[in-house]
Design brief:
There is one protein chain. With 214 residues, the protein is an alpha/beta fold. 41% of the residues lie in helices and 21% in strands. A five-stranded parallel β-sheet has the order 2-5-1-6-7, sandwiched between helices. A two-stranded antiparallel ribbon has the order 3-4.
Length: 214
């Protein structure tokens, strides 16, 4: 069993325990980390583990709250998509608060479509019956305002650690899989993704659980 699988199982157990202590009231789990850290894979495995234990769970990626490319062009920030100021922090926080309150029969959330690099509104439905929501994203534990208002919404927080060397390698491999040329890959990694990742690592608050995914 891999390190990610072991940690996913442990996080699922914690979520189930919190759910029991709260008498079934909805639980929100945060899994944060730099791009390429493995947080998305971990979050997916946590959701799968909860479902295997007959707990209704859903995944909520923060990436659905990217500003549209047209907005980023107007801001002059298109080349830096993925930086902390290229997301709708207030809209994301309001959605988390709405999901935590769990007063609606169903909530539609946006989902980022990596094939077109654009978020699709209403890309996923989360019904009121969902007991645990596992949220994954880069800035969930950021200490920078207004993102610092997000961490307290979660019932349990996780940060996935990875070294700079491994981060660079994984980011390069990610863009290679999209068929980009070496020059564009280097630009994306060295000018944007890696600096963002290092900022995420240094600027995040201490989580409830820290995972080494090197």
């Amino acid at each position: 069993m891999s390190n990610i699988e072991i940690n996913a199982r442990d996080i699922a157990k914690v979520a189930a325990q919190i759910l029991s202590e709260r008498n079934g009231k909805r639980v929100l789990i945060a899994i944060a980390g730099a791009p390429g850290s493995g947080k998305s894979t971990l979050a997916e495995k946590v959701v799968r583990g909860l479902k295997d234990d007959d707990i209704d769970a859903a995944l909520l990626p923060m990436d659905g709250y990217h500003y549209d490319d047209i907005v980023l062009e107007q801001m002059g920030r298109r080349p830096f998509k993925g930086a902390i100021d290229t997301f709708d922090a207030h809209g994301f926080r309001r959605m988390l608060e709405r999901l935590k309150a769990n007063e609606d029969d169903v909530v539609a959330v946006p989902v980022f479509d990596r094939s077109i690099e654009i978020a699709r509104a209403g890309g996923r439905l989360i019904p009121q019956s969902t007991a645990v929501i596992v949220c994954e994203g880069n800035y969930l534990l950021s200490r920078q305002a207004p993102w610092d208002r997000i961490k307290p919404i979660f019932d349990f927080t996780v940060f996935v650690d990875v070294t700079e060397g491994n981060l660079r390698k994984r980011l390069q491999e990610r863009w290679q899989s999209y068929g980009l040329d070496p020059e564009e890959i280097n630009r994306k990694v060295e000018d944007n993704d890696l600096p963002n990742g290092l900022t995420i690592i240094s600027g995040s608050a201490e989580p409830d659980k820290r995972i080494d995914n090197n």
